[in-house]
UniProtKB/TrEMBL annotation:
Family classification: Belongs to the UDP-glycosyltransferase family.
Top-rank taxon: Eukaryota
A Pfam family reported for this protein in Swiss-Prot or TrEMBL: UDPGT
InterPro entries: UDP_glucos_trans (IPR002213)
Parts forming coiled coils: none
Annotated organism of origin: Hibiscus sabdariffa
Keywords noted in UniProt: Glycosyltransferase, Transferase
Protein name (database record): UDP-glucose iridoid glucosyltransferase-like
Transferase is among the record's keywords: yes
Length: 470
C-alpha cells in the first residue's frame, strides 16, 4: 500500500515548512503496541499522525487483545503467532504478564519483521524504523536484528517516569521498603509527590517491579529517540530533567489524541446511547465516571459511590465495565432502591465513547482513576476532575491534577457515601469547583496552542525530520 499524502488544508498546516517534497517517497513505519487499551490508543494515534504526514504504517501486534483493524483501513495489520491469544489478563499481576509478553513475542515478532523487510525490498518500499511501546522492550533487539533503527513511545506522564526512577534510588538507600509507603511526607526533590503517591506497584511483586523499571530504562540508550505523549505546558521541569538524563533526544508531542485525525481505537464496543442521554442534560451539570480499562472496585466501594451520587442529586453518566466490580452480581447491588432514587438522573453503560463524552457540553466533571489517557483527554476538554487513583502511575497523575494544575480534587477515601456526595458538590456546585473549571479551561487553551503552533507542534516536525533522516 502506498503512503497517502495530506489531503486537507488542516493536515497540511501541521507539516513543517518545506517538507512536502520529501514526503513524496513512500516510507513505512512499523508500530509495536502493548496490547492494552491505554497503550494501543496512543500508538494508533501516533500512527495516524505520521500517516497524515505521508508515512505508510504497519501495526505488528499480538494475537492477544488485537487492535480493531477495520477502524484503520489505511494501515496494514500483521498479527504475530505468539500463542498469547487465550490469556486472561491477571490484573493483580500485570507486570508479570508484561514480562511474559516480552518473552513470548521476541521470536515470532523477529520473524515477522524479517519478512516485512524482505517484502519491502521486493516492493521497493523501505522501512524507516520500528516504533514500539516502552513496555514491549524486546522490540529493540528485534529491530537491531534486522538492522532497523527503533524509537520508543512512552505512554505515561514524564513525572511518572521520574518518580519510578526515584523509587529505585530510594529503595537502594533503604528509605523505601518493598511494600512502598503510606507516609504523607513529601519525597525530597519530587514535589508535589508524597511517599504514598509513588507508583510502587500493587500490580506485581517488588522484584518484578524493579526489573520492569530496569527493562524500560534500558531502551533510553539503545533506541534512536523517545516520543512522549505529553508536552511542555504540562510537564516542562520533568521533561527537562529527563532530557538531561538521556543521551538520545526526546520528543514531547502530546496530547496525541488532539493531533490525530479522529478515529476510535476502542477494543470494547462503545454504547452511544449515552450521547442521546447527555443531549437532554443541562450544560456542565453531568458527572462522568469511568475507571478506564483495567482498574476495578469492590462491592462496598460501588455502593458508596452509587449512593453518594444519588444523594448529590447531580446527573451522572457512569461506565461500569464488565469485570470492573469484583462482584459479578453488581447490578443486583444497585437495584435495591437505587434505580428508583436516581430515576432519569443517571445513565449507566458498559463502555462509552469517552472523548466524545468529555467534549459534550453537558459534562461538567470527570470522576476518574487518572490513567494518563483519561487525564489528558479531560485536560484537553477543560473538564475538572475528581481523582480516585487505583494503582501505579494513576497516583502521580492525581497529585499533579490536584496540586500542580489545580484542576481537580484528589479523593483519598471513598468508603463513605457522605464524602462522595460532598466531593461531588464541591466540584459541581461550589465556588471552589467553578474556579477549578476556569483553570481547566485556561489549561486546555494552553495545551491546544502547544499542539497547533507551539512546543508539541515543533517537536513533531523535528521528529518527522529525524525519521526521514534514517
Ligand atoms: N475509554 C473509553 N470508554 C470508556 C472508558 C475508557 O473509550 O468507557 C478509553 C479512554 O478514553 C482512554 C482509555 O480508555 O483513552 C483508558 O486509558 P487510561 O490511560 O485512561 O487508563 P487505563 O485503561 O490504561 O487504566
Amino acid at each position: 500500500m502506498l503512503a497517502r499524502f495530506p489531503e486537507t488544508e488542516e493536515q497540511l498546516t501541521y507539516m513543517a515548512p518545506g517538507k512536502e517534497e520529501q514526503l513524496r517517497s513512500p516510507c513505512r513505519l512499523v508500530l509495536i503496541p502493548l496490547p492494552f487499551q491505554g497503550h494501543i490508543s496512543p500508538m494508533l494515534q501516533l500512527g495516524s499522525i505520521l500517516h497524515s504526514k505521508g508515512f505508510a504504517v504497519t501495526v505488528l501486534h499480538t494475537t492477544f487483545n488485537p487492535p480493531i483493524s477495520s477502524d484503520y483501513p489505511e494501515f496494514r495489520f500483521v498479527s504475530a503467532p505468539d500463542n498469547l491469544s487465550d490469556q486472561v489478563v491477571p490484573t493483580d499481576n500485570l507486570l508479570f504478564f508484561i514480562s511474559h509478553i516480552n518473552v513470548k513475542c521476541r521470536v515470532p515478532f523477529q520473524e515477522c519483521l524479517a519478512k516485512m523487510v524482505e517484502q519491502g525490498r521486493e516492493e521497493k518500499e523501505e522501512i524507516a524504523c520500528v516504533i514500539y511501546d516502552e513496555c514491549m522492550h524486546f522490540s529493540v533487539a528485534v529491530a537491531e536484528h534486522v538492522k532497523l533503527p527503533s524509537i520508543v513511545l512512552r505512554t505515561t506522564s514524564a513525572s511518572t517516569y521520574i518518580s519510578r526512577n526515584a523509587i529505585v534510588r530510594l529503595k537502594a538507600e533503604g528509605v523505601l521498603t518493598s511494600q512502598g509507603s503510606t507516609s504523607q511526607e513529601l519525597v525530597p526533590g519530587l514535589y508535589p509527590l508524597r511517599f504514598k503517591d509513588l507508583p510502587v506497584s500493587k500490580i506485581g511483586t517488588p522484584e518484578i517491579f524493579l526489573q520492569f523499571i530496569t527493562d524500560i530504562n534500558k531502551t533510553r540508550t539503545s533506541s534512536s529517540a523517545v516520543i512522549w505523549n505529553t508536552n511542555d505546558v504540562l510537564e516542562l521541569p520533568s521533561l527537562q530533567e529527563i532530557q538531561k538524563q538521556n543521551r538520545v533526544r526526546i520528543f514531547p508531542i502530546g496530547p496525541l489524541h488532539r493531533i490525530a485525525p479522529t478515529s476510535s481505537s476502542s477494543l470494547i464496543k462503545e454504547d452511544r446511547s449515552c450521547i442521546t442521554w447527555l443531549d437532554k442534560q443541562i450544560q456542565n451539570s453531568v458527572v462522568y465516571i469511568s475507571l478506564g480499562s483495567l482498574a476495578s472496585i469492590d462491592k462496598k466501594e460501588l455502593a458508596e459511590v452509587a449512593w453518594g451520587l444519588a444523594n448529590s442529586n447531580q446527573p451522572f453518566l457512569w461506565v461500569i465495565r464488565p469485570g470492573s466490580v469484583d462482584d459479578l452480581e453488581w447490578n443486583k447491588l444497585l437495584t435495591e432502591g437505587f434505580t428508583e432514587a436516581i430515576g432519569e438522573n443517571g445513565c449507566i453503560v458498559k463502555w462509552a465513547p469517552q472523548k466524545e463524552v468529555l467534549a459534550h457540553d453537558a459534562v461538567g466533571g470527570f470522576w476518574t482513576h487518572c490513567g494518563w489517557n483519561s487525564t489528558l483527554e479531560s485536560i484537553s476538554e477543560g473538564v475538572p476532575m475528581i481523582c480516585k487513583p487505583c494503582f501505579g502511575d494513576q497516583r502521580v497523575n492525581a497529585r499533579y491534577v490536584s496540586r500542580v494544575w489545580k484542576t481537580g480534587i484528589h479523593l483519598e477515601n471513598i468508603y463513605d457515601r457522605g464524602q462522595v456526595e460532598k466531593t461531588i458538590k464541591r466540584l459541581m456546585v461550589d465556588e471552589e469547583g467553578k474556579e477549578m473549571r476556569q483553570r481547566a479551561k485556561y489549561l486546555r487553551e494552553r495545551v491546544e496552542l502547544s499542539v497547533r503552533d507551539g512546543s508539541s507542534y515543533n517537536s513533531l516536525n523535528e521528529l518527522i525530520e529525524l525519521i526521514r533522516s534514517f
